[in-house]
Amino acid sequence: MPTPSRYWREIPQRYRLEAGRCRRCGFIAFPPRLVCPRCQSREFEVIKLAEEGRIISYTIIRVPPHQFVDQAPYAVGIVELDDGVKLMGQIVDCPFEELKTGLRVRIEFRKIMEEGEAGIIYYGYKFVPA
Predict the structure, then answer these.
(1) Domain limits at 115?
(2) Residue 77: which H helix or E strand, with range?
(3) Of 58, 48, 68, 70, nearest in space to 105 by CA
(4) Model confidence, pTM
(5) What are all long-range contacts of 67-70, with beta carbons under 8 Å and residues at least 24 apart?
(6) Residue (of 32, 1, 5, 38) closest to 19 by Cα position
(7) Domain identity same for 36 and 72
(8) Burial grade of 106 (CB within 10 A; 0-12, 13-18, 19 or more)
């Protein structure tokens, strides 16, 4: 298993929200890809994703995987960012009764989970009301 610093250093889009925009057709790929799925070009420019968007779908997780038992119940959703990219992630700091499609949210960098007794902490993006 990689060390936490190596894990984050080798995958910058996890904490910088970097995507690749195809130079030929404009398709935005997150995470970045080697080949554009639309036009098969291999030429991309690195861009930073929009930090706000709207919920297009969500659900409440009541029976989670074992790594997330201490967080249940929790909401996850698909968010369409203002640049058109769709991301899935946990929705936090919002009472379940206030969740709705169309709700404006923003991305925040937060703790995702702690791994076992070693206590390795993983961070990533979550969505909070804008």
Answers:
(1) 50-130
(2) strand 74-81
(3) 58
(4) 0.84
(5) 67/113, 67/115, 68/113
(6) 32
(7) no
(8) middle
Residue 7 domain flag: no
Cβ–Cβ < 8 Å for 25, 33: no
pLDDT, tens digit (0-9, with 9 covering 90-100), for 74-112: 999 999 999 999 999 999 999 999 999 999 999 999 988
- Looking from the CA of 106 toward its CB, the CA atoms found within 13 Å total 5
- Structure tokens, 72: 């249940």
Q: Record the tokens describing residue 67, joined without a space.
A: 């790594």
Task: With residue 54 as reference, give the H or E element that holds it.
Answer: strand 52-61
Which residue from 109, 45, 57, 105 is spatially nearest to 81, judged by alpha carbons? 105
Structure tokens of 124? 């990533």
Q: Do 38 and 79 belong together in one domain?
A: no
Count of domains forming the chain: 2
Q: Report yes or no: 86 and 71 within 8 Å, Cβ to Cβ.
A: no
